[in-house]
Amino acid sequence: MNYIIENIVYNNVYKKNIQDKGNFGKIIPVCKESKKNEKFALKMSKEGELGQIRNEIKILKLFKGKIGSENIINLWGCDETKGYLLLDLAEKDLGDYLKEKEIGEKKVQVIMIQIINGLKFIHHLDVVHGDLKATNILYFGKSKFKICDFGRSFLLKEKKECERDLQNIGYLLKNDFYKSKMDKSPAEFSELFKKLVPNPTVTAEEVYDLLVNMKF
Ligand SMILES: Nc1ncnc2c1ncn2[C@@H]1O[C@H](COP(=O)(O)OP(=O)(O)O)[C@@H](O)[C@H]1O
Ligand SMILES: [Mg+2]
To answer: Which residue, of 24, 25, 73, 88, is most buried by count of CB atoms within 10 Å of its CB?
Structure first.
């Protein structure tokens, strides 16, 4: 199958689509027809769901060319009429990553720093992600993580609206990294969790500083 985005032709990498598990979208690994080694993820809307994809395109365009976006998925191209987004191709999402790997405190810190670095960047541009969870964080190999899925994101009117993302970070820490063993997690993470859930008393900026200063 051929897909044309901004006058460039892309083909499926695999005959079978292996990463087709989106709710409103569908993710297909594609490569440039002219340069097969240049791979991307093509996200396309399912029927009747163009609205969220268009919202995602609008938000991702705000990030383009801005310094500090290294932990945010990059938009390489799009077709708003068809509802196509061309994105960096990840290996897997954080949900699957955590199912496959046993990780220690240090690794939790390394991953969390990247997520919060991404969050700091979008909050600085007055964007609320709105749906932060393990399946919306992607792993690119070599300990590299990025935030994706801006379908439910919005431009905030008040800084207070950022609280929602921070609270979700709290749940991510508790449910995905430590499950119900929060009591047994290191004091540093338990303290951080208390600052995030139920009502965040810190900003992404402050969480970032707390994380980088943790010593394991
Ligand atoms: N760029 C990508 N590279 C590889 N896999 C991806 C990529 N984007 C999304 N996925 C996978 O597809 C799933 C659904 O994509 P997502 O953007 O979260 O759409 P939805 O809004 O439908 O949840 C993700 O949870 C992840 O497993
Ligand atoms: Mg998602």
So the answer is: 73
Listed by start position, the domains of the chain span: 3-88, 92-212
Ligand with smallest separation from the Cα of 95? 1
Name every residue whose Cβ is closer than 8 Å to that of residue 68 and which is 6 or more positions away in sequence: 117, 120, 121, 124
- Per DSSP bridges, beta strands 92-93 and 137-139 are antiparallel
**pTM for this prediction:** 0.96
Three-state DSSP class for residue 197:
coil
State pLDDT tens for residues 178-194: 988 888 999 999 999 99
Structure tokens at 152: 């439910």
CATH 1.10.1040.10 fits domain 92-212: no
CATH of domain 3-88: 3.30.200.20
Give the position, in ligand 1's atom list, of the atom nearest the Cα of 91.
4
